[in-house]
Amino acid sequence: MPLLELRNLSVDFATASGPFRAVDGVDVSVDKGEILAIVGESGSGKSVSMLAMMGLLPWTATVTADVMNFDGKDLRQLSPKARRKIIGKDMAMIFQEPMSSLNPCFTAGYQIKEALRLHLGLDAKARQKRAVELFEMVGIPAPEERLKAFPHQLSGGMNQRVMIAMAIACNPKLLIADEPTTALDVTIQAQILDLLTGLQRDTGMALILITHDMGVVAETAERVSVQYAGQKVEEQPVADLFATPHHPYTSALLAALPERATERHLPTIPGVVPGQFDRPEGCLFSPRCKFADDRCRTVPPVPASADLGFARCHYPLSVSAEAEA
Amino acid sequence: MAETTASTPTAAVARPGRLREFWYYFRENRGAVMGFWVFAAFIVVALFAPWIAPHDPSQQFRDHLLQPPFWQEGGSLAFPLGTDALGRDMLSRLLNGARYSFYVGIVVVAFAATGGIIIGLIAGFAPKWLDTIIMRIMDIVLAFPSLLLALVLVAILGPSLTNAMIAIAIVLQPHYVRLTRASVMSERSKDYVTAAKVAGAGTVRLMFVTVLPNCLSPIIVQGALSFSTAILDAAALGFLGMGAQPPTPEWGTMLAEAREFILRAWWVVTFPGLAILITVLAINLMGDGLRDALDPKLKRS
Amino acid sequence: MLRFIFSRLLTFLPTFFGVTLIAFAFIRVLPGDPIIVMAGERGVTPERYQELITQFGFDRPVIVQYWDYLKGVLHGDLGHSFVTKKPVWDEFFTLFPATLELSLCAIVFATLLGLPAGVIAAVNRGKFFDRTLMSSALIGYSMPIFWWALLLIIVFSGWLGWTPVSGRISLMYYFDNPTGFMLWDALWSGQKGALWSAIHHLILPTIVLGTIPLAVIARQTRSAMLEVLSEDYIRTARAKGLAPFRVNGVHALRNALIPVITVIGLSVGTLLAGAILTETIFSWPGIGKWMVDSIFRRDYPVVQGGLVLIAVMVMIVNLTVDMLYGFINPKIRKR
């Protein structure tokens, strides 16, 4: 049984101009100790599906799912109180903006110890010891000093390390990293990714990495799920995905990687992810797809077989990416 | 992201005029619309009070002293809201009182806003030393509690409604100066101002034609809010005997006259105050709505 | 932090001189001969007029007069009241405790009700409680408090007979008032019922004076909370599995408090000075009533001195609030 299993997860937001479906029938499943990457452009509903699972969406959101199991528990059935026992303990999350994700009014130490007291019930001494230990684990020098620092006194990379320390404080079974490196400098990005994969290896937790960066995916993930406009359009093991993408969107994403560029100009995907008002009738990717025909524009496709990476496409590709480009 | 994704269906329709767009947002706030209608009614009453009122506001009916409102025992429909200690019809006095409050509001806001905007624009465009001097002077005015300063000013100028208005306008002015200066400062660094400057616009043109229209939103909101402050302060001064003088049917002055009867005739005290409260409340509701409708930061949420 | 305090102190000085200049100018530069005004309707003989001119130094250049006045102010000499002949300074400090007592009660009342109300409204945004509370707050904010006071007197003193109409304590009790704080002195007088009587007299003035701050604090708390609740770190706190009470009451409130404390502090300044209407209506012997009475008596040295003292007091309170703001906001404190 997978550690986390979501089936047909949908999230709707009530907005002033009517309901907006941010996540549309997404399936996610993660095994113990696995690294899954969820890839997609901004606005493709990657973060929202994870926030929905954690129960962190605002009240304007309605979450529905056929299956929502974590570690043998049905998350849909849990009371808010019971769910809070899991969140932050067995299932933890780190966010995109380390500078604004830590409370500016409390020291880093206070914020990390808060979780330790809540979930593990440690006394003050044990909390301090564990906090220092955690800071060492995530590579923060002079941990005793840094525990006393306020977030604005630390750099972005340092804050993200604090966030990671906080997330792994209670030895979670699943860590969700929501674009953990997007807001950081390039050199720091690599360090943080190394840290995350290293921690994952050492602790054996499962890791869901949400990113829009295919390069990051290639370096870290084992399995990749590609999302587009709230739908999952393809899912494959990382090597296969890079070798033979089945959905034109995946193929286009890969083609846009600088390392793979064959021409002088980097290929791009024209247009943007459809929003609330311009959702196309058929395949959601059809307006931007170079292969789209009338069928694509009128009939929404269903996921293909596992061999074709569950590609949500009428005409899945099956040639290798290099040949394609 | 919002601009690109949300624009498609709306862009098909022609962009609505600024006024219509404003009204669209304003209408969403029910309280503000209610306030707007009450305020409209207040203006109608203020303009047509002498024709609406059943009696002359200063006519004394000596046979009907302190007569209660019509629904109480001893009341009559001739004086629907009763009479005061001199036998004057409460309703007529209240309706006429709306004129004074309206007058106070308009005059005070006009003077405070005009002066404040001009000084604020100057401060925003002036060299640093002049700016500092202007803002220090405003700090000094703001260091005094507004009602106390108005009271002292009126005491020096002599108690009357006109002097009360002057005093209140002076006291309210620094708020406009600060507000205007702050928006000028943030607008001045924007590209369109630089563009106008490069195109050869003079300082005066920059101030009034280029920058000012873009600073108006907060000033309009402040205008609505200080309209209500002006009414409240004028009534307070009248209540303390430093505003409109009896027998003027100004609401605050009426309250002052009614004070000694508070335990005998509740209506002489209740109605003038209620009139002030309803008017001020309506304007504040409207001001809140204006702010929400004009503030682009809140529009998207 | 030290530099922060120092820079604030630097802006204090010019404002202080400006305030003294305005108070000075009120009497000497504005139209009307001060001596004639002081003499009032009785008039004054030419000899006495000359004598007064010399006594007040009106025959010297205005600059010199201001310089003398400023020196006096800096030495605590604000002149003597025309009416009581006592130094303005002494009168102020005899009456100040009454105002301070009332203002503190009002601000405590407003904070204790307004803060939780604002938090609950923000957490239940858009629901019935929020709408009711915000409507009430707007009514409170629009309230002509002199009328509000009269209404409360009609209901609680007139109809129900629960509270007294004016003063600080029943005339039955007489004791020394060494601190000027009636609650404290009544408690230590040992007279039975004295404290109760003092509290009784405080209730209505406190409510009246606290109404507008209450509305302001509730509105400010709500909007600050709403802003904070959409911050990323609130999501982080929730992602830790913290209970809503802890998320809202600790993580959100601690940040929302920064602007709210500023508002509370600034209201203390306005209350200390702005108790004019409340004190007049309830015959509360504080500085607000003192100022109004002096204005009516044309007791100009008192008006002048009172203006300076009140403005300085407001400035000191605002300065303190500024520093407090620096202290409660870690971003400024540790820089």
UniProtKB/TrEMBL annotation, chain A:
GO molecular-function term, one example from the UniProt record: ATP hydrolysis activity
GO biological process, one term: peptide transport
InterPro entries: AAA+_ATPase, ABC_Ni/Peptide_Import, ABC_transporter-like_ATP-bd, Oligopep_ABC_C, P-loop_NTPase
GO CC entries: plasma membrane
Record-annotated ABC transporter domain positions: 6-254
SMART domains: AAA (SM00382)
Highest rank taxon of the organism: Bacteria
Membrane topology: Peripheral membrane protein
Keywords: ATP-binding, Cell membrane, Membrane, Nucleotide-binding, Transport
Localization annotation: Cell inner membrane
UniProt key word Cell membrane: yes
Family of the protein in this entry: Belongs to the ABC transporter superfamily.
NCBIfam families: oligo_HPY (TIGR01727)
Protein name per the record: Dipeptide transport system ATP-binding protein
UniProtKB/TrEMBL annotation, chain B:
Chief location bin: membrane
Molecular function terms, GO-annotated: dipeptide transmembrane transporter activity
Chain ranges of the ABC transmembrane type-1 domain: 98-287
SUPFAM superfamilies: MetI-like
InterPro entries, sorted: BP-dependent_transpt_permease, MetI-like, MetI-like_sf, OppC_N
Keywords: Cell membrane, Membrane, Peptide transport, Protein transport, Transmembrane, Transmembrane helix, Transport
GO biological process: protein transport
Family: Belongs to the binding-protein-dependent transport system permease family.
Record protein name field: Dipeptide transport system permease protein
Organism: Albidovulum denitrificans
UniProtKB/TrEMBL annotation, chain C:
Subcellular location field: Cell membrane
PROSITE patterns: ABC_TM1 (PS50928)
InterPro entries assigned: BPD_transp_1_N, MetI-like, MetI-like_sf
An MF annotation (GO) of this entry: dipeptide transmembrane transporter activity
Domain ABC transmembrane type-1 as annotated: residue spans: 96-325
Segments crossing the lipid bilayer: 12-30, 100-124, 145-162, 194-217, 256-282, 302-328
SUPFAM superfamilies assigned: MetI-like (SSF161098)
Mode of membrane association: Multi-pass membrane protein
Keywords: Cell membrane, Membrane, Transmembrane, Transmembrane helix, Transport
Gene Ontology annotations for the cellular component aspect, listed alphabetically: plasma membrane
Taxonomic superkingdom: Bacteria
UniProt-listed CDD domains: TM_PBP2
Family: Belongs to the binding-protein-dependent transport system permease family.
UniProt protein name: Dipeptide transport system permease protein
Species the sequence originates in: Albidovulum denitrificans
Upper taxonomic lineage: Bacteria, Pseudomonadati, Pseudomonadota, Alphaproteobacteria, Rhodobacterales
